[in-house]
Amino acid sequence: MPTSLMFFTLISCLLALGQASLPLVINTWSFKNATAAAWAVLQSGGSVLDAVEAGCDCCQKEQCDGSVGYGGSPDESGETTLDAMIMNGNTMEVGAVADLRRIKNAIGVARAVMERTEHTMLVAESATVFAENMGFIAEDLTTVKSLNIFTQWLKGNCQPNYRKNVCPNPSESCPPYKPQGKLGPKKHLPTNIHSHDTIGMIAFDQYGHVAAGTSTNGRTHKVPGRVGDSPIVGAGAYADSSAGAAAATGDGDIMMRFLPSYLAVELMRAGTDPSAACKMAISRIKRHYVGFFGAIICANTTGHYGAACNKVPGFLQFHYMVSNGESDEPLLKSVDCF
Ligand code: SD4
After folding, report:
1. Which of 4, 102, 105, 173 lies in disulfide reach of 168, CB 3.0 to 4.6 Å?
2. What spacing in Å lies between the alpha carbon of 12 and ligand 1's midpoint?
3. Tens-place pLDDT, residues 195-233
């Protein structure tokens, strides 16, 4: 084969595989500014941890889709609480915060947990005290918008809510509730797919070092104290520089039962390509919860990436963002749910 033809064939193969190259930033949903923020950090010589922190913080500040940062997803008492985590795929160190109150920069506090304690996760009021000691400012996370969501919910007899097997009947009345004698059939509140867009981010540098992180305000009208999948290692995200990384989004109450990010990374370690690994992680959940709302992004150490999502009414395609130098701007990618 002439050299020019061989070259052409090689380029065509690379294109067919979807332009794998490092460095790489990939994140859930169409949060373009977050991708750009993380990419800019990598381009200016920052670490993958710096990139993930900057990307997630960008969303926290922009209140991406109302699902990240302050002023979103008020719980049953009207308060916004935050979950976040960050993982270093070189050292397998993790920092996480859950049910964090009155501090805007949840991913920053998660990183402080990782770097300034020997622990992995801090929660609730004690996490707030830790954050204040580390120099983060405590402030009310309520906004006009979150107050309005809460007020409307109260006016509508606290519907929907996440309670079951309690009295008074939670599908008609507001808290407080008491346990009801008998347990009823399994129910699961359908997720509002329009107010449910956690940021999950993966960043690789040119050497294949990877970090992953998440930040969210969880689910609207959640029971106070509820923690989702996002700050849980292996559920919301997972990173291992010897295999790859993954990050999930969607109905965390269900997804965290299956550690989808861990599963996807282990599949990639065994040689499964990222798209197939993502699909298998979603399939595992689907076996038990056909109608769950969720998606996952996956990337391996060679810079190949993919995503998968569970097809439910109103959620047929999942969008995610990629920067890997292929273009000046972050690229919007999509995958058909199955
Ligand atoms: C949670 N998984 O707290 C988060 C929410 C989310 O897309 O991902 N929304 O359940």
Report:
1. 173
2. 38
3. 568 999 999 999 999 999 999 999 999 999 999 999 999
